[in-house]
Structure formats: structure tokens, C-alpha cells
């Protein structure tokens, strides 16, 4: 592995572990619960991550343009992705694992080339492909944790994700 990419690979591995933890013991009802009718459910978020996970993998592996950023989104392909949580979560894990494997074996030069191909004019930094997926996953992991905390609190239960940190009030 290119030593310059080691920290990025570790970041991706850590984030994947956090997402798995955020989804542990997820009930069927929690998968579909929305704090507001117009809000995303966890099921919708995992489907979204699965779709974009494929895009990130295609960009990293083949230098494909990133949909919604460099090219139009392939609506037919999006529509083909089911709303089945288990199927999408399994597929997301496969995609993310493959993404990290490729990231682990790529070079900075190849990463820079594929970033340029993937983001085109929207590319503001040389190695965006290395961390865009991680930022995206981290944001949605926080969203999932928040939804699960709200789900518990709406039922009078203790929130699942309480920080053990003296900077938060009791």
C-alpha cells in the first residue's frame, strides 16, 4: 500500500465499522420510521448509499464520471435498485469493501487521474475520490444515529447513542 494512502484506508475502515455499529439490532419498524413524513428513513438512506457506492467504486476503479456531479444521474439504473434493506445493505458492504481494496492498492498518480476523470470541472482537489465516499458515509451514519435516537426518545426510551464525553450536559 502507498504509505500516503494508509491513513485514508484506515479512515474508510473505521467509518464502515461505525456504520455497522449504527445499524446493529435495527428493527423492521426502525428501518422505515421517519421523524417527519418528508424525512428520509434508514431504509431510504441505505438504498441511497448503495446507489452512490456503486458510482464511487466505478469512479475509483475505472475513472468513470461521477453521476450528479460530472454527468447526469442514470435514472433507469437508479429505479432498478430495490427498496429491500437487506439486499441493499449486503450490496453496500460488497461495494464498500471493494472500494477500500482498490484504494489500498492504487497509487497517488492513478488516484489523481481517476479523480480528474470522475469529477471533471467540479474537481477542486487532486485526490477527492479518496475521501468523498468517506465524507458521504460519515454524514449519513450521523443521520442514521440521529434517527435511531429520535425513534427511541419518541417511545420514552433511552437514546441508543449517547456520547460519554464531559463536554455534553447530562
Report on the structure:
This protein is mostly helical and 170 residues long. The chain has one domain: Four Helix Bundle (Hemerythrin (Met), subunit A), CATH 1.20.120. The protein contains seven helices and no strands. The longest helix has 27 residues, at 128-154. The radius of gyration is 17 Å and the shape is globular.
Mean pLDDT: 92
Q: If classified by CATH, what would the architecture be?
A: Up-down Bundle
For the largest beta-sheet, the strand count, sense and barrel status come to: none
Could you name the CATH topology? Four Helix Bundle (Hemerythrin (Met), subunit A)
How many domain units? 1
- Shape summary: globular
Output the radius of gyration: 17 Å
SS field, number of helical segments: 7
CATH class: Mainly Alpha
Q: Strand pairing plus helix content: what structural class?
A: mainly alpha
As an assembly, this protein is single chain
Note the run of SSEs as H and E.
HHHHHHH
Unreliable residue stretches? none
The first-to-last residue Cα distance is 44 Å
Amino acid at each position: 500500500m502507498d504509505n500516503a494512502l494508509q491513513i485514508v484506508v484506515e479512515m474508510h475502515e473505521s467509518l464502515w465499522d461505525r456504520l455497522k455499529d449504527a445499524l446493529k439490532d435495527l428493527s423492521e419498524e426502525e428501518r422505515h420510521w421517519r421523524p417527519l413524513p418528508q424525512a428520509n428513513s434508514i431504509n431510504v438512506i441505505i438504498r441511497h448509499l448503495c446507489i452512490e457506492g456503486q458510482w464511487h467504486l466505478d469512479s475509483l476503479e475505472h475513472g468513470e464520471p461521477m453521476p450528479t456531479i460530472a454527468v447526469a444521474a442514470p435514472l433507469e439504473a437508479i429505479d432498478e435498485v430495490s427498496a429491500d434493506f437487506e439486499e441493499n445493505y449486503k450490496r453496500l458492504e460488497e461495494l464498500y469493501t471493494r472500494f477500500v481494496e482498490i484504494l489500498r492498492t492504487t497509487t497517488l498518480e492513478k488516484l489523481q487521474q481517476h479523480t480528474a476523470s470522475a469529477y471533471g470541472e467540479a474537481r477542486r482537489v487532486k485526490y477527492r475520490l479518496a475521501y468523498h465516499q468517506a465524507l458521504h458515509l460519515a454524514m449519513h451514519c450521523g443521520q442514521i444515529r440521529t434517527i435511531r435516537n429520535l425513534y427511541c426518545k419518541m417511545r420514552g426510551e433511552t437514546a441508543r447513542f449517547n456520547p460519554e464525553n464531559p463536554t455534553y450536559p447530562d
